[in-house]
Amino acid sequence: MKNDAIGVFDSGLGGLTTVKELNRLLPHENIIYFGDTARVPYGSRSPETILRYAKEDVAFLRQHQVKMIIAACGTVSSVVGDRPFVTDMPFAGVIYPAVAAACAATRTKRIGIIGTPATIKSESYKKAILQQHPDYFVATQACPLFVHLVENGYTDFHNPVTRLVAEEYLAPIQAQKVDTLILGCTHYPVIADMIGDIMGADVTLISPGAETAGYAKQCLTEKNLLSNRTENGKNVYYVSDSVELFTENAAHFLQKEVTGTVYQSGWQKEAGC
Q: What is the pLDDT of residue 266?
């Protein structure tokens, strides 16, 4: 079981920010990624629909040999909360690792959270922070267009459309004088340089995907489930929509060309390796 893969799923491509960090922290691990690109985004769906989609995503990953499942999606993690439906193997969402990092980083006890409408409405990040630190101030802001902009490649630091949207979304958070900002959707780190520029150098940005990868390493270490292979692991990607579009856009998240094999779930089509 040690050499089984780590299963990662997301509504689209955002979870690749977690894959990128897993590859860095755990280079000998195989990773199986499922992106539900045919139904992205999840953030505008009802909690009942999101939970149904998440269970279907997990069922797909279970068709492969996996030793841990990561919900690399802020929306799914918010709906699941502290009641995960995966209990027979290690399971992680992105909320609690990100919250732990944010609480450790803040100097003024003022934390901001941006996310999809479903994530913000659930108040999952806010509740997790206040459960640990009732005296902290938490400001939240939904940023529904960010996922669409990132998925469609509007990620350049100087892109005027994305910057205009970001300035409008971030203004209420800036007004609350937070010193730490949780990027509460795994898409958002792709435009972290722009967000950081708008928020200012004194604001620490927290990437849930990266923090969750660190948590996964800790979890697998504690359970003695780290791979014992000596060669580097491999990434295999499955998507529910176009392989070509995924391969083209994934580079924005991985910050390099896709080096694993990409298949369309339901019918397999190799994109390259």
A: 65
Confirm if 146 and 40 have CB atoms less than 8 A apart. no
Which structure tokens are listed for 131?
């459960």
Active-site choice (143, 185, 219, 273): 185
Distance between CA atoms of residues 217 and 226, nearest Å:
8
Task: Note if 103 is an active site residue.
Answer: no
Q: Are 202 and 4 in contact (CB under 8 A)?
A: no
Name residue 236's beta-bridge partners.
32, 261
Report the distance separating Cα 151 and Cα 195, nearest Å: 17
The model's pLDDT over 73-103, given as tens digits with 9 standing for 90+, comes to 988 998 887 677 899 999 999 999 999 999 9
- pLDDT tens digit sequence for 27-71: 999 999 999 999 988 988 999 999 999 999 999 999 999 999 999
Q: 251-257 long-range contacts, Cβ below 8 Å, gap at least 24?
A: 252/13, 252/150, 252/153, 252/155, 252/190, 253/13, 253/14, 253/16, 253/17, 253/19, 253/20, 253/190, 254/16, 254/19, 254/20, 255/20
Of the residues 73, 103, 219, 273, only one is catalytic, namely 73
Whether residue 273 lies in the annotated active site: no
Angle (CA) 243 249 250, round 5°? 80
Single pTM value for the model: 0.87
